[in-house]
Structure formats: C-alpha cells, structure tokens
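idk why but the lab printer keeps eating my pages so im just putting this in chat instead. protein + NAP:
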Amino acid sequence: MTDLIAVLYIVAFALFIYGLMGLTGPRTAVRGNWIAAVGMVIAVVATLLTPGMGNWVLIALGIGIGIVVGVPAARRVKMTAMPQMVALFNGVGGGAVALIAWVEFRTTDGYSAEPRYIAIASLFAALIGSISFWGSLIAFGKLQEILPGRPITLRALQQPLNIVLLLAAVGCAVAVIAGVDAEVLMIVLLLAAAVLGLMVVLPIGGADMPVVISLLNAFTGLSAAAMGLALDNTALIVAGMIVGASGSILTNLMAKAMNRSIPAIVAGGFGGTTAVASGTREERPVRSTTAADTAVQLAYASKVVVVPGYGMAVAQAQHAVREMGQLLESKGISVSYAIHPVAGRMPGHMNVLLAEADVPYEQLKEMDDINSEFPQTDVALVIGANDVTNPAARSDPNSPIYGMPILDVSASRSVIVLKRSMSSGFAGIDNDLFYEPRTSMLFGDAKSSVGEVVEELKNL
Amino acid sequence: MTDLIAVLYIVAFALFIYGLMGLTGPRTAVRGNWIAAVGMVIAVVATLLTPGMGNWVLIALGIGIGIVVGVPAARRVKMTAMPQMVALFNGVGGGAVALIAWVEFRTTDGYSAEPRYIAIASLFAALIGSISFWGSLIAFGKLQEILPGRPITLRALQQPLNIVLLLAAVGCAVAVIAGVDAEVLMIVLLLAAAVLGLMVVLPIGGADMPVVISLLNAFTGLSAAAMGLALDNTALIVAGMIVGASGSILTNLMAKAMNRSIPAIVAGGFGGTTAVASGTREERPVRSTTAADTAVQLAYASKVVVVPGYGMAVAQAQHAVREMGQLLESKGISVSYAIHPVAGRMPGHMNVLLAEADVPYEQLKEMDDINSEFPQTDVALVIGANDVTNPAARSDPNSPIYGMPILDVSASRSVIVLKRSMSSGFAGIDNDLFYEPRTSMLFGDAKSSVGEVVEELKNL
Amino acid sequence: MVETVPLSVGVVRESIPDERRVALVPKLVERLVRRGLRVVVEPGAGAGVLLADELFTAAGAELGDAWHADLVLKVSPPTAEEVARLKAGTVLIGFLKPLSDVEGVAALEEAGVTAFAMESIPRITRAQAMDALSSQSSVAGYRAVLLAAERLTRFFPMLTTAAGTVPPAKVLVLGAGVAGLQALATAKRLGARTTGYDVRPEVADQVRSVGAQWLDLGIEAVGEGGYARELTEQERAEQQRRLTEAITQFDVVVTTALVPGRKAPTLVTAEAVRGMPAGGVVVDLAGESGGNCELTEPGRDVVAHDVTICSPLNLAAEMPGHASELYARNVTELVELLVDAEGRLALDFSDEIVAGACVAGRERGES
Amino acid sequence: MVETVPLSVGVVRESIPDERRVALVPKLVERLVRRGLRVVVEPGAGAGVLLADELFTAAGAELGDAWHADLVLKVSPPTAEEVARLKAGTVLIGFLKPLSDVEGVAALEEAGVTAFAMESIPRITRAQAMDALSSQSSVAGYRAVLLAAERLTRFFPMLTTAAGTVPPAKVLVLGAGVAGLQALATAKRLGARTTGYDVRPEVADQVRSVGAQWLDLGIEAVGEGGYARELTEQERAEQQRRLTEAITQFDVVVTTALVPGRKAPTLVTAEAVRGMPAGGVVVDLAGESGGNCELTEPGRDVVAHDVTICSPLNLAAEMPGHASELYARNVTELVELLVDAEGRLALDFSDEIVAGACVAGRERGES
Amino acid sequence: MLVESLAVLVLAGFVGFTVISKVPNTLHTPLMSGTNAIHGIVLLGGLVVLGLGADGVLNKILLVIAIAFGTINVVGGFLVTDRMLGMFKQRKDRADD
Amino acid sequence: MLVESLAVLVLAGFVGFTVISKVPNTLHTPLMSGTNAIHGIVLLGGLVVLGLGADGVLNKILLVIAIAFGTINVVGGFLVTDRMLGMFKQRKDRADD
Ligand SMILES: NC(=O)c1ccc[n+]([C@@H]2O[C@H](COP(=O)([O-])OP(=O)(O)OC[C@H]3O[C@@H](n4cnc5c(N)ncnc54)[C@H](OP(=O)(O)O)[C@@H]3O)[C@@H](O)[C@H]2O)c1
Ligand SMILES: NC(=O)c1ccc[n+]([C@@H]2O[C@H](COP(=O)([O-])OP(=O)(O)OC[C@H]3O[C@@H](n4cnc5c(N)ncnc54)[C@H](OP(=O)(O)O)[C@@H]3O)[C@@H](O)[C@H]2O)c1
Ligand SMILES: NC(=O)c1ccc[n+]([C@@H]2O[C@H](COP(=O)([O-])OP(=O)(O)OC[C@H]3O[C@@H](n4cnc5c(N)ncnc54)[C@H](O)[C@@H]3O)[C@@H](O)[C@H]2O)c1
Ligand SMILES: NC(=O)c1ccc[n+]([C@@H]2O[C@H](COP(=O)([O-])OP(=O)(O)OC[C@H]3O[C@@H](n4cnc5c(N)ncnc54)[C@H](O)[C@@H]3O)[C@@H](O)[C@H]2O)c1
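predcted complex ->
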C-alpha cells in the first residue's frame, strides 16, 4: 500500500509540474489547469489510502464545508473581482498551514520528542501561514473596497512596531525550539504573526496589490513545503516548493511588468516611502503594456487594424510593421491598414512607406471605409499616430483640430498605442484616447516595439 | 558531518544543473562546463569526508591512474577525433558502473540481505553499464577507423542472436533477484550484456555514430542513477537521472538535426534495414545544415558577406535579408553584399531589390572590390545564387559559363548556400562549390530560411 | 441672394495656355448636385484633362454659360477679359495670387465680384481638405522629380551590370515643405540617394521620415529660450558658402523654397551650378517668385555650365488628371462651407476660413 | 597589319540627329591606352554627353581625324557619307542593324571595311560584358517608364490625402526581356501596380522576381515532351482577344516584344487602345520594327481615343551619360578581344564571339 | 533522510524556477491563481494529522477548519483559474469550427 | 524512503528534460560531452564501496579499476568539453578587447 501511495504521490506532483508548464502558454493554459487539478485529486486519494486512517466523519465534514463554501464562491464571483478571490483562497491556505502547525505543536507537546529540524519547519510554517492568512484578508478587503484602497500607515510608528512584532514571533519560536513547551508561546507566535500580516499589507496601495498577493502566494507555498518537511510528506514538500519557487519568479515578472520593484513594495509595508508613485497616476491613469501582451492580444484576435502615423515614418518602422502583418495573416487573422488622409507630414506619406515595405494595396483602407469596421475590430494597433485618432476633433470645438475627421479607433474592442512617450503630436494637444479604459500604451520607438512584438508572436 | 555532506551533495548537483543550463547557450557554454566540474569536485570531496572512509591508498591509486590516463588523452586528442574520445570516456563510465555492481554483488552475497529494489537497481546498473562499455568501445573503434566504418552485420542471424543474449542477461538477473546467489549468474549477465553491446553497435554505420554515442551516454546516466538507488547515494541518483533525461532529449535533437529517427538507428543495431541512407551519399557528399547552426556561425563571425542571386529575387527575400543584416550589424559584425554584374535576370536586378529593402548603398560591393575580401571573410552567405559562384567558369573551358568572372566565395572560411534543392541555375550546370568541404547547404525557400535564421539569431 | 431658384455653380474653361486643369470633375459635380446646386459647365471645360462634356452631363451638370453662374469655379487667376465676363455679385473661387497679383484682385473688387482665393485659406487642421496649395504642391513635387529624371543624362537608381556599375544619383531638395517632401520621397523611390534641407530646423525629422538625409550646414541658430534667432550677416554668408559647397556634390537639385508673398530666396548660386557635375539638373519650383537659383529663367530651360536648369511655372497642370481631381475636391469642400443646408449661399464671415479666404468683395458678401 | 606603330582607335562624332551617345568615354580611353593603343577622338565627339574634348585628352587620347584610325568605334550605323570616309581595311565596331539594314552592311563590305555589329555578338555567358543590346535595353526600359509617367495625366503611386485618395496606376509590360523587366522594376519603384506578359512562359518567375504579377492569358501552349507547341489559328485569335480585354484594365502599357530580324508582333490593337482609360499611355519600344501597337507611328506621339501612344526610336540616346558609359564598356571588352597582348590587331575567327559579331569583311580580317 | 528531503526541496525549487520563464502578462494572474490552488495541497497535511488520530476537541475543531480551508483553497483555486482562462478557451472553440 | 528516492528520481528527470530545450546544432556535441562528464559521478560509488571497506583482492582490484575508470570519465570529459568549446571562447576574448 505505501508503495502505491508513493507512486501516486509521484504521479500527482508530476501532473502539477506538467500542468504548471501548460499554464505558462496561452494555448495550453486551460488544459494545464485541469491537469494540475487531476494531480490534486490523485494526491488526496493517495493520502486517504494511508493505512490507519480514521476520523472519516470529521474528514468528510471538513471537505464538505470546503466544497460548499468554495465552489459557489468561485462560480459566482464577478470577473472583475477575481484578484481578491485569489487573495482569499490564498489566505485560507495559509490559515490551514498555521492551524495544522498549531495542532502539531499540541499533539507533540511542543515537539518534545521530535528532531529539531521538524520543530523548525513546523514553526516556520506556522509563522508564514499566519502572516499569509491575515495579510491576504487585508488584501481582499482593500480590493473588495471594504477597506479604503489608499495606503493606511502609522507613519513613524510603523517600522518599529513591525520589528517588535517580528522579534516577538521569532523569539517565541526560538524558545520552543530550545525546549520550552508552553502552548502560550505558540499562541503568541501566531498572534504576533497575524498582526504583522495586517500591519505589513495595510500600508500598501491598491495598485500594488496584485504583486503583494503573488508574494503572499509564494510564501504560502514555502510554508506548505515546510509543513511537508515537518510531516515528512513528500507531496507537500514538492508541491509547496514548486509553488514557492515559481511564485517568486512570477512575483518578479509581475512587478517588472508594472514597473515596480518588489523591495520597494515590501519596504512600503515596512514604513518606507513608496506610496507616492501610485498617487500621482491616480487622476489620469494610463495602462502601459508589454510587447508580449500585445502579441498575445493580436494572436487571439480575428480582426486587427493597423493605424500608422508620423511616428511610424520617423522610426522607419514600415518593414517591421509589414512583417508583423504577414505573421498575423499567416495565423488566419484579418489585417488591414487604416490610412488617414493627413497621417504623417505630407500627402501620401503613409502610402510611400507602406508601398516601400510591399504592403499589398488591397490592405490599405481609406478612412471612410475603415471607420465602419472598427466596431468589429478586436485590436486597433496605433503605430506612432496621434492627432488623427484624437476624439477632441469631434467633441471639443475649442481644439485646434476640431472638425477634422478622425479614425474611430475607440470603437474597437481594444486599442494599443505604440509611441515613445505621452507627448503630443503635430497639433500639440493631449489625446483623450490614451486614457480610455480600453486603450493600453506600448512605449518605445515604434521600430523596436514592433520588432519585439514580432519576436513574441513567433514564440507563441 | 553527515549534514555537511548532505549540503555539499545538494550544492554539487545544483551546480550540475546550473552548469548544464549554461551548456545549452553559446555565450554561457564555457562557463557552464567549468561550473559542472566544480560541482563534481565538491561531490568527490563530500564523499571522501564520509565518516569511516578508509582504503586511502587504493583510492589514491585509482584516482591517480585515472588522472594520469585521462588528462593527457583529453589534452592531446585532435579536434577531429573528439567524438570517439567522448565515446571512450562514456564507455569507461559504464564500465565503472558494471564493476561496482559486480563488487556489490560479491560483498552482499548476491544481495541476500538487501531489499528487493536494491537488487533490481544494482543488476539494472550492471546490465546497462556493461552494454555501454562494450558498445562505446565499438563506437570508438569505428570512428577511429580501427574497425571499418561501414555497417557490419550478421544478416538474418543478427536479430535472433541479440534476442537470445538479452534473454540470457535478463534471465540471470531474475534468478538473482529471486534469491539464487551464484556469482556465475552475475558473470554470465555481464558477459551477455557485453556481447550484446558489441552486436548492437557493430551494424550501425559511421554516419549514425554520434547519435548512438549520445544514446549510450543517456543509458550510462540511467545506470548511474540505478547505482545511486542501490547505494542509497542521492548525488548519484540526481546526477545520473539528469544525464539520463537530458541525454535522451539531446539524442532526439541530434537525430532530428541529422534527419534520422532513433528507432530506425536502433533497429539497425537489431538487424533492421537502415544502412542504405548513408550509402548513396558517399560519392558526392553534401553537408546540409540548419537555420540554428547558420545563426551560430554568423553570430560568431566578424565578417559576413552576403551573395544574393536570382533565388533571392524569386523568393522576394530582400526584406528578410535586410533584417538579418541589421541584426548582425547590431552585434558588431561587418556585413557587406557582393553584387555580381549578372546576378538575377536583368541588369541591376539585385540593386532594385536591395534598394527596396533599404540596404545602405555603402554595403553593396562590386565584384572586383569584394573578391579580394573573401579571404578575410568568416562566412559567405550565398542566397539563391548559383552560376555567379560557379568555379567551373574559371576552371572548365567546356562549361557554357567559361570565362565569366565569378565571386570567389570559396576563398572565405566557410560558405553557406541557401537554395531549395541541388538543382542548377540559369546556365543549367552543376556547381562544384556546393560539394566543397567548407560549404554547407541550407535547403528551403530563401525567404523562409532567412526568416528562420533571423529568429535563431534573436534567440542567441 | 437667390432665394427660390437653386444656386448655380459654373465650371469654366481655362484660357491660359498650358493650363490643362479644370476646377471640377464629374465625381464632384454629382456631389454638388446632390447638395441641391445647379452645376453649369462651359463646353470643352474638361478638354485638357480628356474629360468629355458628356461625362459632366452624365453626372448631372448642364452645359451652358458658366460665366454667369452665381458661383464661378476656376483654377488659374482670371485674365482681364475673363473678369469682364463676370457679372457683379458673382462669387468667384480659384487660385487668385492675392499676394502677388494685386491689380488682378483690385479688378475683381471693381467688378463687384466676391472672390475667394484658394491660396488664402488658413492652413488650420479643419481646412486641410480645402488646402489646394498642399494638393497641388504634392503633384508638383512628384513631377519635379520626374522632370529631373527625364533631363538627367544618367540613371537615378544604382545598377550593377555586366557593363559596369552605375552609382545612384544624388538628389538634394532645398525647402522641405509639401512639395519638397514629396520630391524627396519620389526620388528615393526611384533609387536615388536623397538629402533634404530647410531653414526650419524642426523639419529635419520629417526629412528623415521619408528616408532622406538631413543636410546639416552646421550653423546653430538656436538663441535664448530655444527660439530661433536672426542670423548675423556673417553667419548668413557662411551658410551660403557651405550650401554652395554642398550643392556641388549633387547630380540633381530640386528647390522649393518659398516665403509667402516675398521674392524666393536665392539658394543655388551660379558658382554652385558651375561646381555641379556635367549633365546635372536643377529643377526650380520657385520660378514664379523669382526662383531659388541665380540662373533660373522662369518658365524656360537653361543650360549653363553643362547643367540644365528647369523652371516650370505650372508643373501641376502638366498632370491635369489627378491635379484636377484633387483641386476639385478642395474647391468642393469650400463651396459646401459657403452654402447652407438648403443649398443657398450663406457666407459666414465669422468663420476664420471664410474670412481668411475672401480677398475681394467682402462687404458685398456680408450684405 | 600594323606592326611597329601602335594600333589606333578612332572615336567619331555621331552625325544622326538625336544620337547623343558616344562610343567611348574617358575612363575607358584610359584603359585602352594602358593596353598600348592610340586613341584618336574626333573633336566634339562627346558633346552630346557633355563630355568636353579636354576630358578625353586628359585620359590619354589625341584629338584628330578619328575616321582614319585602324579601328573605328561608333554607336549608330554609319550613314552613306560616313562609310565614304572610312578607308579600306578599317575595322568598324558599332550597332550596324545587320538584320534589317542589309544595304548598309553591303556598303561596308564594298568599302573594304571589316565590320563588327554589336547586335550580333552571341548572347553567351562569356560575352555578357560586351552585350550592348542588354545594356542599352536596360536604359530603354527605365526611360520608357519615365516617359510614361511624364505623359500620364495621373499619379503612378497611390496617395491618400486630405483631398481624396489617388489609386495607384496600373502598368502592363508586354515582352519581359531585359527592357521589359527593367520597365517593370522601375514602375514598381514609382509605386505602380505592375503586371508582365511574355510569350515565353518560363519568364513568369522572372516577372514575379521584380515584384510584378504575371498576366496569365490561360492558353496552354505546352505540347508533347514539355516543348512549346505552335498555337492553332483559333487559339492565337483567342489569345489576342483575351490580351485586348486585359489591356483595357491598364493606365499604362509598355511594349517591348521583339522577334529578332522580323517585324514586331502586334499586341495592342486599336480596339484595346479604345478600351483604355482616357489619359492612358502606351509606350511602344518596338517602333523601329514596326511597333507592337496598331496605332503606333514610329518616332512620333499619337493621341488616339484619348490615349497617348509614344514610340521613341532611340530611347537610350535620351540618357546619353550612362548609356554611353555602358556602351563604351561593352565596346572596350570587344576591342580587347580583337587585340593581342602587344596591342596588335589579332582577329581570331575561331572564337565564336569574333565570328558571330563579324558581319562584313571577314575574309579581309582573316588575311 | 535529510539529504533526500533537501534534495527533493532543491530539485522542486529548480523545477519551479525553470517552469516559469517567459509568461505573457495576460497569463500572470491565471498562473498565480493556478499555483495558489496547488498549495492547497496543505489539505493533505490536515488529512494525515486528523486521519492518523488527533485527540481532543480543540485539536479536532482546528483540523476540521484546516481541512475546510485547504479544500476551499484547492477547489476554489482551480475553478477560478479556469474561469480566468475563458479568453483562451474561446479561441480554441473558434479554431475547432 | 522509497517515496523520496523516487521523488528525487522523477524531479531530477524533470530538471533534465526542462534544461535541454533548444540547443543549436553546434552545441550538440559539447553538450553530450558535458553530460558524459557528469555521469562520471559513478566515481563516488566506487569511492564509497571501497572506502567503507571492501575485502578481498579481487574486489579491491575491481574497485580500483572502477575508480580509475570513473576518474577518466570525469577528468577527460570536462577537459574535452572545454576544448570543444574553444570556438566560443575565442569570441569572448574578442569581445573583451
Ligand atoms: N499629411 C499631411 O499632409 C500633413 C501635413 C502637415 C501636417 N500634418 C499634420 O500632422 C498630423 C499627423 O497625425 P499623425 O497622427 O500621423 O502624427 P502626430 O499626431 O504628429 O503624432 C505622431 C506621434 O508619433 C510619435 N512618434 C514620433 N516618433 C516616434 C518613434 N520613433 N516611435 C514611436 N512613436 C513616435 C509621437 O509621440 P512620442 O513622441 O510620444 O513618441 C507623436 O505623438 C496631423 O495633425 C496633421 O494635421 C499632416
Ligand atoms: N543579370 C542579367 O542581366 C542576366 C540576364 C539573363 C541571364 N542571366 C544569367 O542568370 C544567372 C544569374 O546567376 P544567379 O547566381 O543570380 O542565379 P542562378 O544561377 O540562376 O541560380 C539561382 C538559384 O536560385 C535558386 N532559387 C530559385 N528560387 C529560389 C527560392 N525561392 N529560394 C531559394 N533559392 C531559390 C535556384 O536553386 P533551387 O531551385 O535549388 O532553389 C537556383 O539555383 C547567370 O547565369 C547569368 O548569366 C543574367
Ligand atoms: N496645418 C496643416 O495641417 C498643414 C497643411 C499643409 C502644410 N502644412 C505645413 O506648412 C508648411 C509649409 O508648407 P508648404 O509646402 O506650403 O511651404 P512653402 O511652399 O511655402 O515653402 C516650402 C519650404 O521652403 C522652406 N524655405 C523657405 N525659405 C527657405 C530658405 N531660405 N532655405 C531653405 N528653405 C526655405 C520653407 O521652410 C518651407 O518648408 C509645411 O511644413 C507643412 O507641413 C501644414
Ligand atoms: N545569356 C545571357 O546571359 C543573356 C544576356 C542578355 C539577355 N538574355 C536573355 O535573352 C532574352 C531576350 O532578351 P531581350 O531583351 O534582348 O529580348 P528581345 O528584346 O529580343 O525581346 C523582348 C521580349 O519580347 C518577347 N516577345 C516576343 N514576341 C512576343 C509576343 N508575341 N508576345 C509577348 N512577348 C513577346 C520575347 O520573349 C522577349 O522576352 C531574355 O530572356 C534575357 O534573359 C540572356
């Protein structure tokens, strides 16, 4: 029987790994998720097969409660509320670890008969689990707007208090490891960790929350691995450690994508100065995106309209644009180019460039023809154009460009704008398009940006 | 002490993994190799620290002999003889496994007191180790031309004999596992495996040898892992298994790159039909290459000359060629384009295309200017040109193109020709350039081939 | 003015020799007719563009006396006889050279005509569709390069052939406005190596955006606060010296440098021409304003120092088909601005375009 | 023949009007002088190319009576007076129209001249550097498109502007030899949509290799064994019908279809021209052999059915600079083949190039 | 014992590191959610400790809660991830048409 | 015990698989040679068995040979690999200039 369990465990975590690999690619993600879920079922079944298992009623009760609570919660949550749901699920995972560690402490009389590394692992799990649980609850509260999204901080007190709490928790742990087996130590440890979790997450602004959730997720993984060491359960070690490792990488990727650094975010939790960055953006937030994301969005569109402008000419990006167009077409995506009558700086500027790059004439669409197609367009890719897409030309009679017909890109499902900065075009005016919720900005020289998108497309 | 050893082992195999990762990229390969070597030193030191180690003299003797034999062999071997050297080193590794298993058998009285899985692992190690040892010796002999390179086979007898040998070896193993502990069984097992190793490799032709060596290498890794299981040595398990897994992937990659399938090659060893393919190429062998290889060669050149011809025009590959040129330049490589007066099908054909793709005029070199530069050129990249590079124009007075000045590409250190097939150009004659030892062919439509090279270059 | 009868729009036949354009083409006749206007076309108006009268009538126009229409559309400025044919109260639209042909405009004023000059439409974004200067400059820039290629005794593109290698022609464009940029783009297309220059340094990026190099004369004209400062006399001389030196490197020079209402600046000196390779070509698009080249004789081809200097006066008219189409679209947009929803004339002089374009008879229009 | 005195090579002045080319340019004078030859240039020989006599003398030539040189280089076939100026025993090199101008060749023979026709050089690989037909056809193909762009009343490239969108011109090239391919490439550069056609189906790939489409008339002419078979009368008619239909889709048609020594095939019928858009252009490069267009009047511009049909007879001469340079290189290669290492005339008639190119006085040459 | 546990730890870490290399931004959140579901594996810890006999009411209550928590983590995690991946499913359907 | 050994085996296998993904052909042989050197780790087996006491002359001889073999495999393997990588070293030197 133990051999069977061993094999089932191996199969289970092999499926986790395989599933995770799948989750990193758009084509395989859905399947990857279910493969990992199958792995989980196998792991649970294997555990239940352990010789000498009992307490079946309570086990069934626990699992039952979990299902009754978890399934509807996951089913009903709105798409927009997903991140806080993940925070919550992560939190309860951490809570479970903390609780198990506590029971472990109680049933072993403070690890009196266990090797020291088991005590260390178990207490580590308790500490991290508790922080994760309470920290995640705060994250949930902030995102769900139960708590205010802005940073809540104790100012100067923040940092000393956090340090005191950390020292208290670690102190209790050291005492236990040293052999003191009063349960109060464990309870103080759990409480101190809990308050620490609250205090660290409260000062972090809503914009940084996803990164924090991911970080807590990685921590929970580590705590699970520690618990696995303590319980000598290989499945826990492997799965926990994989989550710990992949979670940290992922946190890093996410922080990079948001132009934030993890130390800065965490420092915020410890009373450092971080909140400013998220503050200034508030009034006119701009969503910036990456070449990889642009590539995914393009690859999963069925209709893409490229809107070239003066910036494409300055960057001399026409050849790269053409290559991108061809790549998309080879994936069965319809691609056209919307040529505004005054795009660029001379009549026919875009034509000259696109002809040079050998874009077929059939794909060049005049403004009047293409404007009716934007509502069916999945992605409008604005490459170095600005004024010719500016809605002020329609809405603002005081604008210098009022009355000019414009390309109606904002009617499409999603708009991606490639330019180097937020600076204005020929007419020298701001463009509201860039601040619309469906718009995201891919900053950089048009030629290099398009080049990167092409590369990403090839890797998809 | 055991804790220290444990940690050292972990460090060692972490270094192996890290080193292997490095070995997969041209930039990091050299360092990767030395990192893995450091890991090995740490593993050896850790082992020597094991409490209760003795027999120091003998250990020193063994290691001493190994160094005295191995270092000069590795130092002196000619670059062209590298593959057989690898075969030899792989073989002795396999031999070591087989010997250790044999001793293990002797010291445990046929595993009488050990759990069954230890016996299984040890016998598996013995079997594979012995096959690897003898098989590698044959591979060495063939490549070193001590044995004839052509397939040596017993025809119809081959397959039955192999099967008998395999059954004999496995039979002995089963008997031992079942409890029979006569040493003769072990010896028969080792001998049967040895003959099997010989018989399987002998019928394989010289061209397939690298793949076979890689396969034997993977097998040796597996045998080391099995030995690790038997000796309960984690370092062996990890390192052996990593080699086993990565070795199989690598074998697969190598076979693909050579347009061969592993089953077909192995089938040859078991008396199947495979030898034909390597036979027909003999008289006028052509080296075909891949986009990845072309990319590496280009990326590590300092001077590249592109020789465009009619094929580039037909494929309309000019934009892709230009992109490749730019990429290479951004890596600090000098790129020029050698324009033959009659390349293409009309005067100035190449100029029109390259100007369309915006290749700077400065990079276009006339024939007389560039011919003196070929001897300093690392790679001449011939893209769809044929007649204009044909040495027959100089050497063969009967050729229809005799007397035409040609681009002297064969003076460069390496020539890569991109065309779809071996078929001839406008003049309808064969081109000796394609068969020269320094020439390799990248078959396929010029546009897609260049596209692939570009992609590979970006990944370097 | 006219209340019940629909407003009539007259399309007249151009009388100046070599003016092959026409102010309206059938496609746009249709559009005006749909707006409720009557379009009267003088027979033969489209002859220069090879547009037969039937094509106009098929589009909804009538043939007749276009000069007596309420709104008369022209391309070139009217001659004295033509002004005489206009009845008082007529609204005239066309190129009227308001800055240089002061008498012509005065004559119109005298004749009681309300005149809108296409040149005077303010170059604001909203007026881009009426910007006939741009559309005709585009044509001129393109044609200037064709003309240069025609006259040059050499190839524009580089060609490597069995009979030797031909280097690409070097083309310099002075003045990178609409015509200049179009010329740069066209020359690049034909395979030449192109370079552009302008006094406005901010145009450098635009020059590069058509694949050309920017000719940097190395004179910094940036003063305090980033504003351009007036060049000293010495600097100006130094600039001219360097330009002259630069010009000698080029096979073809196309000049388009204009300063509205003033004599065109002299950029290509006789000395520069002497330095150019034999067989070279200068195309001077500023001929009408005196020319950018010292040796220019407006409207004529001159060969001096083995260099051909062309100064076509009305290059757009040499490609009447598209020139007319684009011009007709510009004019139509203006007409639509002058007419209300019911097709009645409604001159709203509070509109900066209407006010800016009106060069004669504004009071009458306002009445 | 001449033993001690170096061989003299004469560069004469072309007398035919409009022939602006010259048979040798200074760069190649140098090369011949280095080979030990004496080059004698008739004063004013380079005038058409704007090459002053001093440039020739600077390169090592002497001015003098070029007609009495041992080897006389020309571009166009000599007129009767010119033949009279040649002394017996002279070697003449130039375009001599050996297939069409039978009398001219006979006159040379009579005058005791050994004549090499550039047209007759076999088109083998080794002779590519002497292939003046190719080099001059390249020039002609390029110029034909410039001419068409000049004459067309429309833009070649597509332009989307504030005043409307201009579609790209459609250009059809019939006959995809050297001139045809160059024409296709040039028109593509200028932004036109290009299509090519030829009777030889294997040219389809070459047409595509310059970015043009292949006009498939849908008539299979592949017979047994992959050889082209003669078309039946009916098929030929069908082919002509489809071609006529196709031509009406194009703004510009450039024809270059020649069959050596025969009348050029008629490809563009009057009916096809009638179907073309008004303002269209036909450039017929086959004018000299009768023209590919029914309405062609060789050497003149005709306007029929609102389409301009040009048939320039000597297009290469209109770009004399590079045309002369390329031709001079071709001629020089041939001269070098006719001269031995010591700079003496050595006609080796066992060489297929020498034998093929010689159209008159072979016996004399062999003596 | 310890060697092997450590080895497992380190190797699992390596696997975790190498599995995540380049992930498009769009997949960051689903991936986070997926890994989150996987650490619900702590459920196993609860099962083992409770199943192999934990005495005392408090212990039992705590463990039932822990198991419930773990189950929520697992079940909710996988379901939410799947919903997030809706966009990519759509495409698959389309491709299947 | 067995679970952990198996876990190590499987995880190591996974690591081996993921480490090798796309290798340019030029690196195939060096990579093969490098992995070859690593399986020289069997040397450790010889050391343990001999060091922790193997009796009998034959056993000792066999083990000395095994150790010698293992050492050759390791030392030769790494050295040969390094030499094969000469091409890539050259470039590094150049870049350092
Ligand atoms: N077509 C004509 O005939 C003509 C003539 C004269 C004036 N205009 C006017 O020009 C304007 C044309 O509109 P448009 O949308 O084409 O251009 P635009 O409004 O001038 O905007 C161009 C944008 O491209 C970006 N850009 C510049 N260089 C870039 C690079 N290397 N990579 C990426 N982005 C780059 C700039 O933003 P960053 O700096 O942030 O990158 C800029 O906002 C209109 O206002 C029109 O009225 C047209
Ligand atoms: N320039 C002129 O004026 C002129 C005029 C007439 C004739 N010629 C003659 O043409 C020849 C020119 O020499 P060249 O070296 O440029 O061309 P070439 O000798 O004709 O060779 C072209 C090669 O390109 C390959 N190719 C064709 N399509 C391809 C594609 N899509 N992708 C990749 N490769 C492709 C073909 O091989 P695969 O089929 O195996 O791919 C062919 O061998 C000379 O013999 C010259 O004398 C020149
Ligand atoms: N608002 C709009 O949308 C709009 C529409 C059309 C044109 N424009 C802009 O107006 C500008 C003028 O266009 P244009 O073609 O009518 O100009 P233009 O024909 O009046 O002049 C041509 C060019 O000559 C240059 N020039 C003058 N003196 C010079 C000298 N001494 N040396 C060198 N160059 C000299 C000018 O700077 C100008 O660029 C352009 O930059 C164009 O982008 C804007
Ligand atoms: N050996 C060499 O290296 C070399 C050198 C130069 C040219 N060539 C080849 O020789 C060929 C002829 O070149 P050219 O330019 O001197 O030819 P050309 O001027 O004699 O004829 C022009 C073209 O017209 C075509 N044509 C004839 N009758 C036609 C008809 N009824 N309809 C349509 N097309 C018709 C011909 O096929 C030819 O392609 C070319 O294909 C060229 O590639 C080879």
